[in-house]
Amino acid sequence: MLGGNIGAAAVAVALLTGTACAIELDIHKEQSIKDAAATAVFNTMSNYTANQTSSNPKQSPRTWWENGIFFSTLMQYWYFTGDASNNAAVSQGMYDQRGKANDYMPQKSPGFVNDDQMTWGLAAMTAAELNYPRESSSMPSWISLAENVFNSQVARWDNTSCDGGMRWAIEPTQSGYTMKNARENGGLFQLSARLARYTDNQTYAHWAEKIWDWSAGTALLDTKSWRVADSVLVEGSCKRSSHEQWTYNYGPYISGAAYMYNMTKGNEHKWRLGLDGLLKTTFDSFFPEKHGGKIMSEVTCEPKMLCGPNQDIFKGILASDLVFTSIVASHTASDILPRLQGSAVGAAKQCSGGSNHTLCGRRWYDTEWDGSADIEEQISAASLFSANLVVFKKDKNPATLSTASNTTQSTAKGASESSGTTTSGGDSSSKPNSGSSIAGGALGVSAGIVAGVVAAVQAMA
Ligand SMILES: *[C@@H]1O[C@H](CO)[C@@H](O)[C@H](O)[C@H]1NC(C)=O
Ligand SMILES: *[C@@H]1O[C@H](CO)[C@@H](O)[C@H](O)[C@H]1NC(C)=O
Ligand SMILES: *[C@@H]1O[C@H](CO)[C@@H](O)[C@H](O)[C@H]1NC(C)=O
Ligand SMILES: *[C@@H]1O[C@H](CO)[C@@H](O)[C@H](O)[C@H]1NC(C)=O
Ligand SMILES: *[C@@H]1O[C@H](CO)[C@@H](O)[C@H](O)[C@H]1NC(C)=O
Ligand SMILES: *[C@@H]1O[C@H](CO)[C@@H](O)[C@H](O)[C@H]1NC(C)=O
Ligand SMILES: *[C@@H]1O[C@H](CO)[C@@H](O)[C@H](O)[C@H]1NC(C)=O
């Protein structure tokens, strides 16, 4: 049942057309883009078998944090296509993973770090903004889940070094505890900004500003070159950074600045300056001129085909952040949309892998399939294709509390695992499913990236 009929139909059409390039894409035709998105989504769902309320989402993305991206991508797909085939599974998975305190903090978390939780908080935020259908109205609202993630994280704001910031890891024993990173701090900035716009609650706006200013005071966010570093070492006051450039570190700062820009009605120069500066760096860095300047590339690992699995999902994250930026900061659309279109046209040519010639590779600039066909490449392609439907969508503004449908009021009670409570932080009516526990085995997710970055930072230190 998963994946629905549109995917199969699109594949049938693609196969009938008989070319080696199996995702046919006419970027100017809505149905053509929908078909491409449906095929990519079908492929992301084809291995997804989890419908077991007491288990992790299984056998699709390989790591827990990637599952948050996966669900968020599927919500975006529904939003832009209207195809609801996967909604029940996604809603169920989102609730299954919410944790006892409704804040996406697993109870047992060996390798679990701040930005893993953040991925899920941002997915819940996306669900709220897109009016994503809930599994059942007795479940906590999406916005309360997002607020709970915010509250659980700001309680970990670390004043003991670098005058603030979020550490990458949560526990001193974890790899990554000695670093503060862009994905987490940018992610909390983005979540705060989106919560601020959604709820109009100034607490979130203050935090957004505080995290942005803090980032700009460290080597993470360079407000002269508008480069975002991957991470900084706590030792040396967060002035030393890893120079590696990744698309998914730019997305949250761009998106957060766009939401703040919108929320302040375009009147605050700070957000316009940051947004436009970061976009320029993103275009210059990740849309290389040698491929025409309109196709997104993970430049740090793609040229030599050295991308790790995690890294193949990054471009999908940036595509998603860019498309919503183009909505809430409308002046950016004329720069963003041609690049999403160029990337999609490029990616479609790349999607001729596997026995059915529809699996996408990672190098969207190659005119032939590059041989990679993991789940992360399919998720990135699904995000990219569905993002391109934005030009056909009416009423595309992300919801706010006053425009949201089927969303309960903002009810966060400040539930935080650090307060030692295990009570529900969401709707008081909701009873977390006590049978819903998260197996530890598949967590640990970012640990690989963290280790890689430790090496990188040490190499430059
Ligand atoms: C999962 O299985 C349960 C129990 O059979 C069912 O109620 C639920 O609708 C299923 N969910 C999905 C997404 O298929
Ligand atoms: C809103 O709630 C109604 C009734 O529960 C349901 O039929 C409908 O699908 C929901 N819509 C959304 C967008 O969640
Ligand atoms: C960090 O310090 C600020 C004041 O400098 C204070 O308001 C805040 O509560 C502190 N945060 C934590 C988590 O201790
Ligand atoms: C604003 O959000 C914070 C954090 O969730 C919450 O503690 C506070 O009660 C909210 N304020 C209002 C007026 O809702
Ligand atoms: C704010 O976002 C809305 C869409 O939600 C958009 O119509 C409006 O133009 C945006 N404001 C600015 C200043 O870009
Ligand atoms: C294409 O083949 C892959 C395995 O190679 C499979 O996972 C996927 O479901 C197939 N997709 C379609 C659309 O048939
Ligand atoms: C699905 O799983 C099979 C077997 O592990 C694998 O070969 C295939 O690549 C997977 N498909 C996707 C789209 O990840």
TrEMBL record:
The keyword Membrane applies. It catalyses: Random hydrolysis of (1->6)-alpha-D-mannosidic linkages in unbranched (1->6)-mannans. The lineage of its organism: Eukaryota, Fungi, Dikarya, Ascomycota, Pezizomycotina. It is found in: Endomembrane system. Keywords: Glycoprotein, Glycosidase, Hydrolase, Membrane, Signal. Residues 1-22 form the signal peptide. Its EC number is 3.2.1.101. Its main location: membrane. GO terms for cellular component: endomembrane system. It comes from Penicillium alfredii. GO terms for molecular function: mannan endo-1,6-alpha-mannosidase activity. Belongs to the glycosyl hydrolase 76 family. The keyword Membrane applies. GO terms for biological process: carbohydrate catabolic process; fungal-type cell wall biogenesis. Residues 410-435 have a biased composition (Low complexity). Residues 400-435 are annotated as: Disordered. This is Mannan endo-1,6-alpha-mannosidase. It holds the Pfam family Glyco_hydro_76. Residues 400-409 have a biased composition (Polar residues).
